[in-house]
């Protein structure tokens, strides 16, 4: 009965349903709350990071001082600690064990940015399910994922953890992960609670420098940054995390507007909010609180229920309550939110983990990770069909510091991934080549930042003996992720020199980039015959890339983020607003400007004299070994009312020689609004697999209500008028098709 109840609650979204089953949990929460002392309540609001010493932690747990532990991953130790909570603490309230399971627990999937490049939400959901099965087998029932921060600045190291620059894609992928983690019911022992983060705006850190301030207007917050979090709430996300950044002067962990007014008030969220790591006491550094007491007061009043590791709640709230500065009611509500999640997870009925489960690195998990890595790779260039590697190649040179770097290819946030389980491209290529192709391996550089060019001559010699060269370059895992921001996005170390030297051999040169973000690789792309981009692809990256290189699989990934030509163009993203002086295409660039040119002779439009206005690769871009043609794009009706559904029919044909998958994309533009609207917005996409010569009739359906935006009156509204849409292979292709929305 409880099981159905929890399922019903989750299916009903984030608002309290008031149905019978939910009421059972509410009753349990209330009766437990009544029996709790203030210290026990504050204990539930206190999360610590495991510090190894079980006896010390047990003493705290026995006293009821701890509600949750993060970073404990050993099932025996978890059961030991849980036994103390359940059997030796006064009220027997179970602990909630948390971990950053970001793109896999043991079986590591591509980094979330790579998963977004698949444009395949089902695959992302399946990956999250596997992560939940593996993590829960260790006793973990809460992950701090998905990260659904829209990020438009690749200098920011944490772009790697999210789905890139687009609000819609981020929403879809976030929901997919939540479904995978939480399964059909939170109450299932293989389900783990999701934690959409970082609420909110963290991805807009000024200058792309982590923890930096953001300045997002309320309208932009609502139109760009909040929708993924609202979608997460509707998908039943159990918890949220408040972010480190201050927006317009207000740190998120003290921001009542986002945590109470929007999250709980507007969206009806009834789960739990946890602070980010010490983000409560960091409000002192922000200058938003004078001391830990003020920080605790501001955070709890703003709506942060659980304090991640700062201990400010546990230490400061007793006095604040005594002095009447924090209301008892505020504490009770926070504890309700925490207990509710513990009940929904079934922790009271089933607190212990089965220590004999053996699910880690299961063959099906590795197979899913490989599929994800295959679908996440993006073919950015393929001159004269260099790829797949032709059968005529007898000798293949494998070069580069990322060809055999099992740790690095897992990417950031892989506390639990084991490099001994990683299969590198070199290993997989050797296996596929078997005795048919001779593989010569010469790394050239020993790691991505290596500036020692001694090995380059050997790499060039190897390349000269081969029919084709594949060079694996990119970023080590440590160069992206939290606090790992870069001001320069060129390839590190002597990697560019290595590529330049290899290109001089005149051999067909395939460059494979394994990185945590889009890098400024225009020069290296120009020197290469083919370019395959693989955001750190995880445990099974090697076999996936080998299959793609040899044509056993065909690339289908699309860029989830715009690739800039140079850092100076950042932020550059497809869904920008229209300026009053858009480019005309007649702009004159630096090298063509006559000497002593007149002040206004170049035209006055919005572009850079050196880089122009286009990126290196636009959003949604990615090639295939085959070619696709879009045709007959027709609307079922081109005049619609707000209650209608837009139906766009089109035909897609595979005009090449490989069975392959295309990601068809639907963009819209709202021509005139009460505020300036973006040039384009992604609204739908679908993956379509076609055989050579196959043509298929397809359809996009979009309820007109989804054209709504937060307008000049700060109301979410569809404003009737003229619109345009594009059905295309990327954000910069296709012909505009007009339609109208009437009153
Ligand atoms: C990060 C969070 C993470 C938390 C717990 C923080 O530093 O910002 O994303 O979930 O640590 O490890």
Note the quaternary state here: single chain
Question: Could you tell me how far the N terminus lies from the C terminus, measured between alpha carbons in angstroms?
Answer: 47 Å
Calculate Rg over CA atoms: 27 Å
| Helix percent band | 25-40%
Mean pLDDT: 96
Q: What low-confidence regions span 5 or more consecutive residues with pLDDT below 50? A: 1-13
Mind telling me the CATH superfamily name of the domain at 19-344? Answer: Glycoside hydrolase, family 3, N-terminal domain
Strand arrangement across the biggest beta sheet: 10-15-14-13-11-12
CATH class of the domain at 19-344: Alpha Beta
- Fraction of residues in β-strands: 15-25%
Query: Structural class of the helix and strand makeup?
Result: alpha/beta
Biggest sheet overview: 6 strands, mixed
Ligand inventory reads: beta-D-glucopyranose
What characteristic shape results from the CA principal axes? Answer: globular
CATH topology of the domain at 19-344: TIM Barrel
Count of helical regions = 21
Care to describe what's here?
The chain contains 21 helices and 25 strands. It has 743 residues and is an alpha/beta fold. Among the domains are: 326 residues, TIM Barrel (Alpha-Beta Barrel), CATH 3.20.20.300; 114 residues, Immunoglobulin-like (Sandwich). A six-stranded mixed beta sheet has the order 10-15-14-13-11-12, with helices on both faces. The protein has a five-stranded parallel beta sheet with strand order 4-3-2-1-9. A five-stranded mixed beta sheet has the order 17-25-24-19-20. Helix 17 links the parallel strand 11 and strand 12. Helix 2 packs across helix 15, helix 17 packs across helix 21 and helix 18 packs parallel to helix 19. The longest helix is centred in the middle third of the chain and has 17 residues. The protein is globular, with a radius of gyration of 27 Å. The two termini are 47 Å apart. The structure holds beta-D-glucopyranose (BGC). The site of beta-D-glucopyranose has 6 residues, from loops.
